[in-house]
Task: structure prediction
Amino acid sequence: MSYCEKKFSRRKVIKFIALGTAIPFMNSLIAQAQAVKSSKELMKYRDKPNGEEQCSNCMQFIPGKTPDANGECKVVEGSISPHGWCNSYAKKS
Ligand code: SF4
Result:
């Protein structure tokens, strides 16, 4: 068996092709899973705080341009009030 035949065996080529197609597919699945957000209804979102708990001090909150402007949430879809709250609240540490 020549050096070239050893280096590029059929099995290695098939593995290389399989990995080449599987990795981008897995990356797109992971990106889609990360992009999925829940609806406000499902998370029982409301525009009012729950005592001291509100979106502005939740680790999932992405602030708007000013402290009182609506922002976004990493797990709930739509415009989110900094004074809102939902079932997924997680205090910022
Ligand atoms: S997880 Fe809930 S409480 Fe936290 S920022 Fe998102 S909507 Fe607000």
Summary: The chain has a mean pLDDT of 86. The chain is about 35% helix and 5% strand.
